[in-house]
Amino acid sequence: MKRIVTLIAIILFMSTSLCSAQEDLNAIRFKGWTEKEWFDNDYIRELRKYIDACSKGEVKDQTLLAHREILKSKFIIGHIEPATYGGVFIYFTFLDAPRKVFYTQVYSYVNPDTKKIDGYEVRVVFLNEDELDYTREALLYIVENYPEYKLW
After folding, report:
1. Where are the domains of the chain?
2. How high is the pLDDT of residue 8?
3. Residue-wise burial string across 103-125, b where 16 or more C-beta atoms lie within 10 A, e elsewhere
4. For 135, what's the count of Cα atoms within 13 Å in the CB-facing half-sphere?
5. What is the pLDDT at residue 20?
6. How far is residue 133 from each of residues 84, 94, 99, 140, measured CA to CA in Å?
7. What average pLDDT does range 77-88 have in this prediction?
8. For the chain, how big is the Rg over CA atoms in Å?
9. 16 pLDDT band (50/70/90 cuts)?
10. At residue 33, what are phi and psi to the nearest 5 degrees?
């Protein structure tokens, strides 16, 4: 019993330390970001590269490969937010499949000494179970009328 309590205490300490460390790294990742940076940044660019690589067969992502016919389509960001464990969560919709919502975590490697990001990695892509009641025209309307949104 004592071992179990000790093990639980170690796990709690480690998870608290990890979250605290990531919060500090997120402060580096997003320092000074304005609304513009949230809609146009290297996390989104990395996602576009990942989708293109999947389309070319260079990346084997089962979720995206199941929708191969839309991978060359542009997409719009529906929501982006910091991820507790580093990087961002992104919800996105392809112009050629406006009812489907995908989400992903794009991680960034931060060098704590230089306080700079050393690289990005798309960790996983999921398809949301619920579909949106959007059309291609509705997405184009958003892009045309809200300058912060764009097609990627």
Report:
1. 2-145
2. 54
3. bbbbbbebeeeeeebeebebeeb
4. 3
5. 43
6. 30, 13, 6, 14
7. 93
8. 18
9. very low
10. -65, 135
